[in-house]
Design goal:
Elements lengths: L8 H10 L3 E10 L36 E4 L2 H12 L3 E6 L18 H18 E11 L4 H12 L4 E8 L14 E8 L14 H4 L13 E5 L1 E3 L9 E2 L5 E2 L5 E3 L3 H9 L3 E2 L9 E5 L11 E2 L1 H4 L2 H12 L11 H11 L5 E4 L6 H8 L3 E6 L3 H15 L16 E10 L13 H13 L29 E5 L2 E5 L15 E2 L1 H10 L6 E5 L1 E2 L3 H7 L1 E5 L8
Parallel strand pairs: 2-16, 2-17, 3-4, 3-15, 5-14, 15-16, 19-21, 20-22, 21-23
Antiparallel strand pairs: 1-17, 4-6, 5-6, 7-13, 8-11, 9-10, 12-13, 18-19
Helix pairs in contact: 1-3, 2-3, 3-4, 9-10, 10-11
Length: 551
């Protein structure tokens, strides 16, 4: 497959592997006094519940600790999320800098072309790692880099996983200053695995609902009719139809009927074919409103359907005032359309170029879990207050359309120190949850259901198997192997070694608290047991930090 080449491409291709894992430092928690409607069913890495399902029941809201606002460089932040969210994100939306050669207050959107490509490539690589196998990524871009981005995403996600380039009509009228101004942005859609992607339907618009009537008083209610002919020639679909009035009808030139004759006769028997009030019309198929699953989307998104730049600016001005408004926001209706197609309530949504916080705001109002990453100060000056207003029940954007009344919450985090110091030792800020998830991903290639920040209830430690006040070093069992971590005094040992050293006493405690009849992998700072004792207990010991690989 052809690939792009640019200055420093080789470095960009390996950058995601070289980025150090960092800790995420908690800053604040934000909760609404309004109760949530329903308890979440979907498991998530923050609550420690298993991911048995990725979706919730319709209308249920997500728990407040499911949502994260992260301030920091998005490349480092995406790497920090990998041990907890690899393969868990159902939908990614990003609105990266367009490289338009113009100055923006909140962004440097004037990167040289090769720098822009080098910036995007490693981020796309990490985003793909975070995406669920049935998930999708949506990227807005304009003509400055859009066609290069298409080739770049072909390389990262695979050309076969390209779905569509939707065109969003972002303007309501031509720009009089230009001889031929652009009216649209590109919206590139890729799947993680194209054969697993299932996009939803859009709800009927008010205009479309007017097409549903009931001229024959059908007891099944209002219906709309559609042409029963189809383009092309299929011999077994070229039969003659006799209308109730006795008129004989054949398919129009260059067309055939949509179904074979036996299916057509069944539809007639079930009163699903309409020949007009006089029974003399060309056959049309009836679709009942009660049976309609919605409308299929296509690649042309008008500003009447999903909003435009002026609408987005008005939304931001109402939130922050014209003097503090964000320069290039997206309308909430645009994000609503994407999440309607790509997610269900309870699914996890990620935006690593959060900007003014639109993606997180819309996801929250629609009952999705979300993670938003923003590097600049406006993570605190724009995103934080906007999301606070959302949980308090602000009524801008799509709020009235989705009957948003407020509720839920989120946690505000900042990117912290690297997990490993320059000498290779583990940074003192690292806690059990972070290192445990890191070790689990190293051993299994999958994320572990642990929080990236320590819970106040569990102190310094914590694990999947941790119950009411009981601490256990067992991370879990994978393919018959139990994986343990001795770190930060997880067994409650207050001695200088803090129980991080594997001794006979520690092994006995492990076998008493969290036994496993099979092979065991135990990570610790040191081991005082001989090879024979380890073999007899079925233990493979691995040293911290030397056997913890940064990958």
């Amino acid at each position: 497959m052809p690939t792009l080449d640019w200055l420093n491409r080789a470095e960009a291709l390996t950058l995601s592997d070289k980025v150090p894992y960092r800790v995420l430092d908690p800053v604040s928690e934000h909760h609404s006094p309004r109760p949530l409607a329903g308890a979440p069913k979907a498991g998530n890495p923050l609550s420690g519940k298993p991911d048995a399902e990725l979706t919730q029941g319709q209308g249920e809201r997500v728990a407040s600790d499911d949502n994260l606002l992260i301030q920091g460089d998005n490349l480092d932040a995406l790497k920090a999320l990998l041990p907890f969210y690899r393969g868990r994100v159902k939908c990614i939306f990003i609105d990266p800098p367009y490289n338009t050669k113009s100055a923006f207050e909140h962004y440097d959107d004037n990167l040289e072309h090769s720098q822009w490509l080098s910036m995007m490539y490693p981020r796309l690589v990490l985003l793909r790692e975070l995406l669920h196998e049935s998930g999708s990524i949506w990227v807005t871009i304009d003509d400055n880099e859009g066609h290069y981005l298409k080739v770049l995403m072909d390389e990262v996600f695979g050309r076969s996983n390209f779905v569509v380039n939707a065109l969003w009509q972002k303007r309501t009228s031509p720009d009089a200053r230009l001889p031929l101004g652009d009216a649209h942005d590109h919206l590139l859609l890729y799947a993680k695995q194209r054969n697993l992607l299932q996009l939803g339907k859009l709800p009927q618009s008010a205009k479309q609902l007017k097409n549903f009537k009931n001229p024959d008083n059908d007891p099944r209610g209002a219906w709309a009719s559609s042409d029963y002919s189809a383009q092309g020639f299929r011999l077994n679909q070229m039969y003659e139809i006799v209308t109730p009035s006795g008129r004989k009808v054949s398919p129009p030139p260059g067309s055939c009927w949509k179904n074979v004759e036996s299916v057509f006769l069944q539809l007639v028997a079930n009163n699903r074919i309409w020949f007009g009030k006089d029974g003399n019309g060309v056959p049309r198929r009836k679709t009942f409103l009660s049976e309609s699953e919605g409308v299929s989307a296509w690649s042309w998104w008008t500003n009447e359907e999903v909003g435009h730049n002026q609408e987005a600016k008005k939304e931001i001005n109402n939130l922050f005032g014209a003097d503090e408004a964000f320069t290039t926001p997206k309308p909430e209706r645009l994000l609503q359309r994407i999440l309607q197609l790509a997610t269900n309530p309870g699914d996890l949504v990620l935006d690593s170029f959060l900007g003014s916080g639109t993606t997180a705001a819309v996801a929250h109002k629609m009952g999705r879990r979300w993670i938003g990453i923003e590097m600049g100060e406006h993570a605190q000056t724009h995103c934080l207050p906007r999301l606070q207003k959302v949980i308090e029940g602000e009524q801008g954007g799509i709020s009235q359309a989705v009957n948003w009344q407020g509720g839920g919450g989120f946690r505000f985090l900042r990117l912290g120190e690297p997990m490993f110091n320059a000498d290779g030792s583990i940074h003192p800020a690292v806690r059990f949850a972070t290192l445990g998830s890191f070790v689990w991903m190293q051993e299994t290639g999958a994320p572990l259901a642990l929080s990236p920040t320590p819970s106040p209830a569990s102190g310094r430690g914590g694990s999947v198997a941790e119950g009411e006040g009981n601490k256990t070093p067992l991370l879990g069992v994978h393919e018959g192997r139990a994986i343990y971590l001795l770190f930060n005094g997880i067994l409650g040992d207050k001695r200088p070694a803090s129980g991080n050293v594997l001794t006979n006493e520690v092994l006995a405690a492990i076998e008493r608290i969290c036994p496993h009849d099979g092979p065991k992998i135990i990570y610790g700072e040191a081991c005082r047991l001989g090879a024979a004792r380890l073999a007899a207990a079925g233990v493979t010991f691995k040293h911290i930090p030397y056997d913890v690989k940064a990958r």
